[in-house]
Amino acid sequence: MITLDAFLTTPWLLFLSVTLVSLCIGSFLNVVILRLPKMMHQDWRCQCEEFLELPEKQRKQEERITLSKPASTCPSCGHGIRAWENIPVVSWLVLRGKCASCKAPISPRYPIIETVTAIFSVVTIAVIGPNESALWALLLVWSLVALTVIDFDTQLLPDSITLPLMWLGLVLNYFGVLTDFNSAFWGAVAGYLSLWSVYWLFKLVTGKEGM
């Protein structure tokens, strides 16, 4: 059984383990990045339909998207992604960046996100060390990777990630896990006010709502 002492005395084992785990996390982040905005749009449409009191037959009928359903498929041919085709980075290299069924190209962004997640995770552990604080720091890093790509793709920052992250940060740092509470509190205030200022500046200049 691998213990914490083994990680402390064998750095390569620690970094190898972090790399493998974070590659898998990166694969999951790809799912979050792709599906969470679609889930949000579905929820908004349902809320609008309910607000307008549209009859059932006028409402758009489609399968509800979650992070686990439906199963991942090729967007070109609908081929179901099998387990061996979903190994982080390795599967993309083995398949030469193409669907196993129709040979349509698979975006390189998937292995890139997995690799970036692994690199950031290893750097986090190298800086903080193998301790409890590092686990919370990794959760922050993984969340920021997902938020960055979602923001780049859709200009959305999902509340389902940002709000829990903010409250988790405040609670953790109340106990001094990553920094002192005053720094965490005023950091949250500064972050909110900066986005709030951009929102109102954009609205004053363009007359439109934006972030």
Automatic annotation (TrEMBL):
Keywords: Cell inner membrane, Cell membrane, Hydrolase, Membrane, Methyltransferase, Multifunctional enzyme, Protease, Transferase, Transmembrane, Transmembrane helix. It comes from the Bacteria. Gene3D superfamilies: 1.20.120.1220. One of its GO terms (cellular component) is plasma membrane. InterPro entries: Peptidase_A24A_bac, Prepilin_IV_endopep_pep, Prepilin_pept_A24_N, Prepilin_peptidase/N-MTase. It is found in: Cell inner membrane; Cell membrane. GO terms for biological process: methylation; signal peptide processing. Its EC number is 2.1.1.-, 3.4.23.43. Residues 138-210 form the Prepilin type IV endopeptidase peptidase domain. It holds the Pfam family Peptidase_A24. Belongs to the peptidase A24 family. Plays an essential role in type IV pili and type II pseudopili formation by proteolytically removing the leader sequence from substrate proteins and subsequently monomethylating the alpha-amino group of the newly exposed N-terminal phenylalanine. This is Prepilin leader peptidase/N-methyltransferase. It comes from Marinobacter adhaerens.
